[in-house]
Amino acid sequence: MPELSHGRRTLVLAICCMSLLIVSLDNTVLNVALPSLQRELHASTSGLQWTIDAYTLVLASLLMLAGSTADRIGRRRVFMSGLVVFTLGSLLCSLAPDLNWLVVFRMVQAVGGSMLNPVAMSIITNTFTDPRERARAIGVWGAVVGLSMAAGPLVGGLLVDSVGWRSIFWVNLPVGLAALLLTWRFVPESRAPRARRPDPVGQVLVITLFGSLTYAIIEAPHGSRLSTAPFAALALISLLALLYYEPRRPEPLIDLRFFRSAPFSGATVIAVSAFAALGGFLFLSTLYLQNVRGLSAMEAGLWMLPMAVPTFLCAPLSGRLVGSRGPRLPLLIAGGAMTVSGLLFALFEAETSNATLLLGYVLFGIGFGFVNAPITNTAVSGMPLSQAGVASAVASTSRQLGQTLGVAVLGAVLAAGVGSSSYADTFVSASRPGWWVLAACGAVVLTLGVVTTGAWGRGTAERAARRLEGERVSRRAEVDA
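The structure assignment produced for this chain is given below.
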């Protein structure tokens, strides 16, 4: 990629952030619309879970493929293709006649979305080559997540109450088209110096692992053990096959050598934990506010602002802290705040009091606002630029997998606790184990933030980067010979 002027780099960042905005906004807006979907389409709790998880599951399954493909055939080309498919999927979602078709069209959306965020992050990584400038750019990127969380509940609530849930997908159409035209005009093409080969076996194993695991979790409260156990077994077999097969490929879909770096491994687990907490938090909060408290979609959106606004404000601050002091402090703040928020709900039933509910939302918003920038920065730092697409795709996959598992696990916990009892009367007690899960996710973020960001972690990252580069050069020499 040629060296760009400061203004052109800023424009490229803005265009990439537009793609993140529509992908992130889509999830937050949809969460507010879940009760309306439940009433109009007669959806069960598991149906609502699939409406969200069909999207995040396909995203998680295809992100690494999209990252490596973009490195191979061109990031701009893949990015533009993603915008086309995502915008088309959004249009189809707004026309879905029933829940089954909505789930299918959400999967179409996700195919496009898989070509957006990891590829956009790779474009940013290759555009902003100075570490401090890159950290600030990633901080802006993280702030867009906060913006989507702040705007999503309000926009979603307004649209659902005034027009209906189908209108929430219309928001993506003008933004997607504008991003497509701007990308075509201003974003330069870039690709890795040496393309990675496709790995169809690895891709099939990843899809099988994620899909069977999610199905087993979501359907566990509704079916017998005999009906879900085969899917759990299939997930385990797929995982073992993946661990056996991938290290033996010259150019694997998942380069397990990345995980020799403690910060990279830590960032992956932190991403899964933090986004599992986010997915579960939004799922439980939306259903509680509308189905238990009886609030409208707009009122529920206003109640979620105390979580969204701190996320928006803290994300750029986190990016600056990562650039100036490293990822440790933001991760400690994030883990601590998310843990305390989960404990408020698990121990003190924070949702039953306006004051504690407000405090729990604010703390979670602060925690999530601080966690995104250090995840991204740690995932791509120390990795060769030629592998930026794959490294950022692993980080993005971890986010989506975490959100998928968060909705699946907490939804299953809620469904098992409610059972056939009165929904409103049993919601608080049924959701309590879920809040314990969220507190545990925060504790994981806090612990790994301490363990992986010190001198030992940096040493493993440096050694892993040297070995990766050495093995790449050696393998390139063998091919040339």
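Interim note for the steering committee: The chain has a mean pLDDT of 83. Residues 6-40 form the longest helix (35 residues).
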